[in-house]
Amino acid sequence: MITPELLARINELARKKRTEGLSKEEAAEQKNLYEIYLSAIRGQVINLLDGIEFIDEEKNKKQPKKKKVIHQTTLSLEQIFH
């Protein structure tokens, strides 16, 4: 889930990277935060696309075939900040 705290920390590390550089620990933290952020965005897009119905010209509803998600990474903020 994308929280204000997650975005604030991502932005803080991005600013620090541009100005003074990151330590190895901070670079690893930034990578993990990006993974959390991108996973949440991917999940939102998948949910949006799963809700789409196709209607042909004769107004007949057709459901798209469901595809299995093979792997979706979900990390919690607790793992990062503890």
Outline the fold blueprint.
Blueprint: H1 4-19, H2 24-50, E1 54-55, E2 61-62, H3 77-81
Antiparallel strand pairs: 1-2
Helix pairs in contact: 1-2
Description of the structure:
- Residues 70-78 have low confidence and may be disordered.
- This protein has three helices and two strands.
- The longest helix is centred in the middle third of the chain and has 27 residues, at 24-50.
- It has helices at residues 4-19, 24-50, 77-81, and strands at 54-55, 61-62.
- It is rod-shaped, with a radius of gyration of 19 Å.
- It has one domain (4-81).
- By secondary structure, it is mostly helical.
Summary of the model, kept short:
With 82 residues, the chain is mainly α. The protein is built from 3 helices and 2 strands, in the order ααββα. The longest helix is centred in the middle third of the chain and has 27 residues, at 24-50.
Radius of gyration from the alpha-carbon trace, in angstroms? 19 Å
Beta-strand portion reads under 5%
Instruction: Please tally the helical runs, counting DSSP H or I stretches of 4 or more residues.
Output: 3
Largest sheet: 2 strands, antiparallel
Lateral arrangement of strands in the main beta sheet: 1-2
SSE sequence, one letter per element = HHEEH
List keywords for this structure.
about 80 residues, mainly alpha, about 5% strand
